[in-house]
Batch of 3 targets.
Target 1
Amino acid sequence: MIEFKNVIKQYPNGTIGLNNINLTIKEGEFVVIVGLSGAGKSTLLRSINRLHDISAGEILVDGKSVTRANGKQLRRIRRDIGMIFQSFNLVKRATVLRNVLSGRVGYHSTFSTMFGYFPKEDHEISLDALSRVNIREKAFTRADQLSGGQQQRVSIARALAQQPKVILADEPVASLDPLTTRQVMDDLQRINRDLKITTIVNLHFIDLAREYATRIIGLRAGEVVFDGPVSEATDAK
Ligand code: ADP
Ligand code: ADP
């Protein structure tokens, strides 16, 4: 589902973010990427939906080249990729439902979504997504009235509303307490199992990675230093 071929990412200031990454992630996998701060986890994730360009190599998603895609092709690829951030990135003053509906934007012309118009089907898809993360009763609450854990579940629902093939979660639990962390990780795991959505999660705690991943990839200084099943990941720091 996702393929990295000799991928190098060098930032304009010269810093190497990724140093020759080769990876294949299969459909339906639940992969956790671990590594210390600065290891390249975020750079790797952001390269997949081309939030930034890579310097060399190629990345494929579902057989399509992200690297060579033109504007229209890239929008099509991005529709299949739901992204979840540490800081939730919700529109704070909008309702939960409005936020989740924004996951549907890629399915419509800019013109209709500019005026906040979404067909009935989109409302149903969005409410279903909220049910999957057990937060449907908050649909008409303003996003900024929710706790951090609830906001992260809304952002998961927004990703689900895209009906994506892939979910990328960049340190999704880094600002949450231990209990909420588990709820959010449980949600991601359940969604991966029930909907077969290929999932990549960046974490900096190896213990959490071991508990949830089927495969752990360890990064250090932009290189893969471990890649294997959880059972072998005892030294994966
Ligand atoms: P992680 O997500 O594992 O903490 P990052 O992918 O954020 O690591 O960073 C990898 C390396 O790239 C680090 O050395 C970081 O300082 C550097 N880096 C990240 N973003 C930028 C940027 N916009 N400009 C320059 N260097 C960056
Ligand atoms: P986080 O680890 O929470 O993702 P970072 O500190 O890695 O946050 O990055 C915050 C922002 O600063 C990101 O947009 C990243 O691209 C940028 N950044 C990170 N490291 C550098 C760097 N060495 N030089 C320039 N920008 C950087």
Target 2
Amino acid sequence: MTRDFSTVGVIGLGTMGAGIVEVFARNGIDVVAVEVDGPAIEHGKAVLGGSTGRALARGKMTQEEHDALHSRVTFTSNLEDLAPCQLVVEAVPEHLDLKKDLLGKVDAVVSADAILATNTSSLPVTEIAVATKNPKRVVGMHFFNPAPVQQFVEVIRTVITADDVFEDVKALAERLGKNPVVVGDKAGFIANALLFGYLNHAVSMFESRYATREDLDAAMRFGCGYPMGPLALLDLIGLDTAYEILDTMYKQGRDRLHAPSPIIKQMVSAGMLGRKSGRGFYTYE
Ligand code: CAA
């Protein structure tokens, strides 16, 4: 690893971003955590605090470790504060233009050898890369939800990513305790390409009243040993994110497997985004 990654940046403190901040800070890395405004920062702080508070309450972390973790994180709404970062990971919503615009701006702020990473689940990393002046330093660094728990990271290497860039990101993922794989820039990469056809199928079974949500989830939990059933998992991922992922994969591959089941879009329009909005396939307190 040629870079020491003592300071990194994370942009977007939603479900994934706040978890990614925690992963870095837990591993002794200083984090500049960026959100658009004060309320969004407060929300990100609450997500991070909820997760570390739970770890503290369960005795998985001492008070000292907890406080040290939080002391490593600086919150800001100013992209210029990313200047000292050797890596910046963006984890903003799955909209191509937003990600392109953002990394284009970060490109102008960080030093020449810093790495720019996108946590996109399915958007073309190459297109995001070419929106910057130096596409060789852009990779995908795709974490899984909940990021502090799941031990997998996909490192997406485009045709123009420099070797030292994806090698350093892979080594960093190992330092974070993850099992990284390097994959090419194809919608859904590996895990989502396999997972989302299954999730979409479960939604269409639910939509056609083939089985109840509880029975669909029970089948996969108790019959197949999955940690969560497909509808509970979609609530965890977020229905808006799931819709964007399916839609991107459908547009790229045109296979019916990934044509988003209509009810997903309807639920998104109705604000039923899953856990984060309090209601999805299930209701949350
Ligand atoms: N943030 C941080 N930690 C969390 C957490 C969260 N949101 N949710 C759970 N945890 C931690 C708990 O604190 C607990 O930690 P300890 O064991 O150290 O005490 C551990 O995870 C287990 O949690 P629980 O006992 O509460 O519950 P569980 O055993 O049912 O596990 C789960 C919860 C980890 C979410 C598990 O059900 C699971 O792995 N589900 C599948 C998740 C999955 O498939 N994720 C991938 C989604 S696809 C994706 O992310 C890619 C994409 O691009 C959309």
Target 3
Amino acid sequence: MQTKLLRPSEDPTAIEQAGALLRAGEVVGIPTETVYGLAADALNPQAVARIFEAKGRPQDNPLIVHIAEIETVHEIAADFPPEAQALAEAYWPGPMTIILPKLDRIPMVTSGGLNTVGIRFPSHPMAQAIIRAAGTPLAAPSANTSGRPSTTTAQHVMEDLNGKIAAVVDGGACSVGVESTVVSLCGERPRLLRPGGISLEQLRAVLGEVDVDRALREKIDDSEKVSAPGMKYRHYAPKAPVTVVFGTPKTSADYIYAQLGENSGVLCFDDCAARFQNAAVVETFGPSDDPEEQAREVFDALRRFDETDCTEIYAQCPPSDGIGLAVANRIKKAAGFHIIDLTEEEA
Ligand code: TXA
Ligand code: MG
């Protein structure tokens, strides 16, 4: 299959072409404010099956359903409780996914066999335009090969999926850079399943208490049952093994400097890069005091290691507040929770 690169900035028919492909049951890479998505008609099981095939994604990992107006929730979810409405009003359109009980219209292949569905109303104008052109809610996981870092440019999507999908719509680089926050409203209390573009503090400002899923703190064994099935798979990982070092920029840099061998790579803050002249590969992901910029750069930086020959990677990591929680989560997952924690020594 020839993958078509559609450019709305040059071609006024690009969005309509994407919509027509989606209506015909094809899979299309689309820009969103978080990361690129691999979209198909969420109500068409054959179309959704093609997403799993193109990504090499395990069948029990549910997909997020994307909508372009809040009212569509009533066509997808069996219930739209007041807390969900309050969240939607505060943070939609935007980088937040709400898990609700699903209606039968959503096929089991879309929900990974669960009776719930993740719903998101993205803020990216092209994402909204494509959903409207398709005339149906769109199921879309991140547009990467399963296990690789998520994609934040159309070029990344082509790297992973060229020849496997009908088209990619080029909307430039994503403005948030890490995926949406996933919050479940299906249990007794709201539960954060994945940190993302909307912070835990922002969720608590609307909901009061929010539990934090265990999968955010520790590595989950493959055989265990987890609330967000996606959290159990090795994820975001470059080919070389990653060790993440928690501490201040200075203490983590000192520690990493002392570990470096001949083929070591370092993922570090911009302001620490000069420290690692002895490393084989140095990739930076933004200033140490700017977690928003780190979010925009982290996946691209992780991807660049795969173009090098380094055999091990040491990574710096921001503190876990605001969007830093999401950045730290992605780096910890890339490291398979292989963590050196220097923060206690500092205290
Ligand atoms: O920002 C995003 O959310 C991007 C863009 C494309 O919208 N999408 C994305 O999808 O990151 P994906 O499939 O890569 O990650 C979705 C996460 C997975 O961890 C999945 O297990 C969880 O959300 N999830 C989806 N539906 C769920 C459900 N019904 N119950 C529990 N977890 C769910
Ligand atoms: Mg993903």
